[in-house]
Specification:
heterodimer; A: 111 residues; mainly beta; 6-stranded mixed beta sheet; 0% helix; globular; B: 120 residues; 7-stranded mixed beta sheet
Chain lengths: 111, 120
């Protein structure tokens, strides 16, 4: 099972929007609507941002939104803030022997 | 508030067994709504799910690790554990224990992570 494909980096100025893509296959991301996104600051544990493609846990700002079309999911961060500078990982369920296949990770820089 | 805390040696010799325990506080591990899993991250690299367990003992392993991996649960202590045998330098990573929902498998709670280095 290969990792999902994400761009290595993305950037934007404060207040702008940035969208991160995540491409999988018809066996994982394209088959299940169990796509989640995680934010990881340096030397910290990942934090859940989005689950089931587009749902936000309590406490996650609505500046973060998710979507999916076919084998590609996307995370959009609107109104970029300095604290959004972090690594972002997508993930998809891929069966009982792979609860989470992760993306390659995208480093978001706030210019 | 649910908390997960990993514990175990930070240094393991090649060919030996890596053993970690995750202690769950603020909630019961004996819930039919969750699996309890392990995810690792080699230094400077991405995340890798390696396995999970249900409180009744059912286990789910990444296929290529299955021959070396054992995950167990102790409901009386609200803990679950990982053992990875015959380790090599490739197993050096930060190991996170996590809670997965049974509904859609995302990881809603993570431990802080513990770095395990495989070196002689």
């Amino acid at each position: 099972q290969s990792a999902l494909t994400q761009p290595p980096s993305a950037s934007g100025s404060p207040g702008q929007s940035v969208t991160i893509s995540c491409t999988g296959t018809s066996s994982d991301l394209g088959y299940y609507n169990y796509v989640s996104w995680y934010q990881q600051h340096p030397d910290k544990a990942p934090k859940l941002l989005i689950y089931e493609v587009s749902k936000r846990p309590s406490g996650v700002p609505d500046r973060f939104s998710g979507s999916k079309s076919g084998n590609t999911a996307s995370l959009t961060v609107s109104g970029l803030q300095a604290e959004d500078e972090a690594d972002y990982y997508c993930s998809s369920y891929a069966g009982s022997n792979n609860f989470a296949v992760f993306g390659t990770g995208t480093k978001v820089t706030v210019l | 508030q649910l908390q997960l805390q990993e514990s175990g040696p930070g240094l393991v010799k090649p060919s030996e067994t890596l053993s970690l325990t995750c202690t769950v506080s603020g909630g019961s591990i004996s819930s039919n709504s969750y699996f309890w899993g392990w995810i690792r991250q080699p230094p400077g690299k991405g995340l890798e799910w390696i396995g999970a367990i249900y409180y009744k003992g059912s286990t789910y392993y990444k296929p290529y690790l299955k021959s070396r991996l054992t995950i167990s649960v102790d409901t009386s202590k609200n803990q679950f554990s990982l053992k990875l045998s015959s380790v090599t330098a490739a197993d050096t990573a930060v190991y996170y224990c996590v809670r997965h929902t049974t509904a859609s498998y995302y990881s809603d709670y993570w431990g802080q992570g513990t770095l395990v280095t495989v070196s002689s």
